[in-house]
Amino acid sequence: MKDLDKALYDLNIAIGLNPQNPNYYNLRGEVKLESNDILGSIEDFNKAILIDDSFNLAFYNRGLSKIKLNKKDEACIDFQRALELEYKEASKMIEKHCKK
User: Fold this and answer.
1) What is the pTM of this model?
2) How far, in Å, are 5, 30, 87 from residue 51 at the CA level?
3) For helices 72-84 and 56-68, what crossing angle results, to 10°?
4) In this structure, is the dihedral angle defined by the CA atoms of residues 73, 98, 49 and 69, taken in order, positive or negative?
5) Mean pLDDT of the region 51-67
């Protein structure tokens, strides 16, 4: 079993045990993003945000996923929200992708 497959397996178990933990969805989204399951990653980041709408890292990660889908405008909205929620790294992505 590859490391990413093992991580997905473990995170699926964790989510089954505690489906209200946004961190588990965010982590699973990161693994899916790393595995190039972009739509799956967005789905997980959406779930994390639905549970905790102040989860700045989930907004940032969803922005990264949307950049991979060439949805720059949507990504910039997520990066801006992450920055508003004090995720400082988002400013780099805003500078790189969102300045006109």
Assistant:
1) 0.95
2) 25, 17, 18
3) 160
4) positive
5) 98
| Element housing 62 (H / E) | helix 56-68
pLDDT tens, residue by residue, 36-55: 999 999 999 999 999 999 99
DSSP secondary-structure letter at 45? H
- In whole angstroms, give the CA distance from residue 68 to residue 38: 7
Confidence band for 2, pLDDT divided at 50, 70 and 90: confident
Tokens of 8: 């997905």
Classify residue 99 by its DSSP letter.
-
Tell me how far apart the alpha carbons of residues 66 and 68 are, in angstroms, rounded to a whole number.
5
Q: 42 Cβ partners below 8 Å, 6+ apart?
A: 29, 62, 65, 66, 69
> In angstroms, rounded to a whole number, what is the distance separating the alpha carbons of residues 5 and 34?
11
Checking if the pLDDT of 1 tops 70, the result is: no
Give the amino acid at 62: R
